[in-house]
Design goal:
By secondary structure, the protein is an alpha+beta fold. The chain contains twelve helices and 13 strands.
Length: 494
């Protein structure tokens, strides 16, 4: 009878140990049952968590960062929506209408969970790629480039990949720059489908380079392969050049250099652009280098001329000064130099001197030098005594528009070219539900809000309160209970 009673006693002891506070629960305070991210491309990403604890879960926060080129490495933090309970289902929705991501952008995310007893859990980190899941993509890889397409045969994709590799080789040979990171190229079946993948597209957008993310997206139908080869080279050049000149000082390339290198990488100027340039040379109607340094004209014919002149300027620099000088020129921007300073450092020219030398190179007439005007003889004017307080008028400067990413004009050639975009700021906030805006150019504009709380070395502190093993006091108490049970058991055996 005593021996039959023994298993019952041991079972009671084990149950009491498992139920003892601070012993069993200390080993599994908060348990993640499910964690995932679901895309509703291109509108949103919904992050979902299901978790359980011995006490009501009172705080669930999502931490995330986007894989992109940046001057600082910070994460964003958002408060999830849920009802406090021992088992919760929490969600947070990233609305892309407030801060967009390009197709193929990669997001790293993890959760911070806390219950009412003070226990905390910081989960493992997971990666999620914001793919355009409306299509079934085919994939072709070569070197650092992955090309994705869903319309067209294998030959179509191989031709575009060859154009991309040729563009990289041309850039490397003639400028010395190359890809800084693996690049994903998404080929939509036309400009309309491409615009459907962007939250705020312009109606003329045919291609976009997201240099910070290593992503290019272009609308190329199977019948537009000839234009597609040029477009893929153009956008890839934008991406490579901007990666090569990325800096944290606000030093931007002049537009003529950025667009000139992109058109140069296409492999030659289009005949209609050549005709426009030749006509402007013959009629002495060229734009000044200074004019096309900050923006391109909105008028189509003048914009075509700006692209043609930019190509010619880049060709002039490469033919007369070589690839090493061009590499040094781009490097000067990476080091934070302004365009006039970089031009003087590398080529020992100012903008007007470059303009004059280039005009001579293309056979254009020199710009007329204005005659100095004689200074008029000043006439003394008495200063009146004011009878009232004068009104001081302060002019308010006109706002500078924010432009979309650098596009490739859609075929046919009559499509309006696009100016280089101004990037949106990088959000780096803690305790806020505001998402991190996407940047379509690598020019940094770090504007944190509110002030983050970094730990040593610039990394974020990881909180793990209450996640360790059972305390020494709890283990001693468990040993005491088990010892008493053994004593009782030996007495029963006697």
């Amino acid at each position: 009878m005593t021996r039959l009673f023994l298993p019952f006693v041991l079972g009671i002891i084990l149950l009491s140990l498992l139920a003892w506070p601070g012993i069993a629960l200390a080993q599994g305070q908060i348990l993640v049952l499910e964690s995932q991210a679901v895309a509703d491309f291109p509108d949103s990403i919904t992050f979902q968590l299901k978790a359980r604890s011995h006490a009501a879960i009172t705080d669930v926060r999502l931490r995330y960062r986007v894989d992109r080129t940046s001057c600082v490495s910070l994460f964003n933090e958002a408060w999830a929506e849920f009802e406090p309970a021992p088992t919760v289902e929490a969600t947070w929705n990233w609305d892309m209408r407030k801060a967009t991501l390009p197709p193929g952008a990669e997001v790293e995310y993890w959760w911070l969970i806390e219950d009412e007893s003070g226990e905390e859990l910081e989960t493992e980190r997971h990666s999620f790629r914001f793919e355009d899941n409306r299509y079934e993509w085919n994939q072709l890889e070569s070197g650092q480039i992955s090309l994705f397409w869903y319309r067209g045969d294998q030959y179509f994709a191989e031709e575009l990949m060859e154009a991309a590799q040729d563009a990289l080789e041309r850039l490397s040979t003639d400028t010395g720059v190359g890809l800084k990171r693996p690049t994903r190229i998404y080929i939509y079946d036309g400009p309309a489908s491409l615009r459907g993948a962007l939250v705020y597209p312009q109606e003329w957008t045919g291609g976009v380079a997201f240099a910070d993310y290593g992503v290019v997206a272009i609308g190329i139908g199977p019948g537009g392969l000839s234009w597609g080869r040029r477009a893929i080279a153009h956008e890839l050049a934008h991406l490579v050049v901007r990666q090569a000149t990325f800096n944290c000082y606000g030093a931007d390339l002049p537009v003529w250099l950025d667009e000139g290198l992109a058109v140069y990488t296409e492999g030659g100027l289009r005949p209609d652009f050549q005709a426009t340039l030749a006509e402007a040379i013959s009629q002495d109607a060229l734009l000044s280098v200074k004019t096309i340094s900050s923006t391109f004209p909105s008028d189509r014919s003048q914009a075509v001329l700006a692209y043609a002149q930019s190509h010619s300027l880049v060709t002039f620099l490469l033919n007369n000064y070589g690839a090493d000088k061009m590499l040094s020129f781009l490097e000067a921007f990476r080091l934070g130099n302004s365009a006039p300073k970089a031009l003087g450092m590398v080529y020992e020219l100012d903008t007007e001197e470059l303009d004059a030398l280039w005009r001579e190179y293309v056979g254009a007439r020199p710009r007329p030098t204005p005659s100095p005007a004689l200074a008029p003889t000043p006439t003394p004017t008495p200063t009146p005594t004011p009878t009232t307080t004068p009104l001081v008028i302060t002019a308010t400067p006109a706002p500078t528009p924010t432009l979309m990413p650098t596009p490739t004009a859609m075929p046919p050639a009559t499509a309006a070219p696009t100016p280089t975009p101004t990037p949106m700021p990088t959000a780096s906030a803690t305790h806020t539900a505001a998402p991190s805006p996407a940047e379509t150019t690598p020019t940094p504009s770090i504007t944190p809000s509110p002030t983050p709380q970094p730990s040593g070395g610039g990394c974020w502190a990881s909180h793990s309160r209450g996640q360790g093993p059972p305390s020494i006091d709890a283990m001693a108490l468990a040993a005491l209970v088990f010892g008493l049970a053994l004593v009782r058991w030996r007495r029963l055996l006697r």
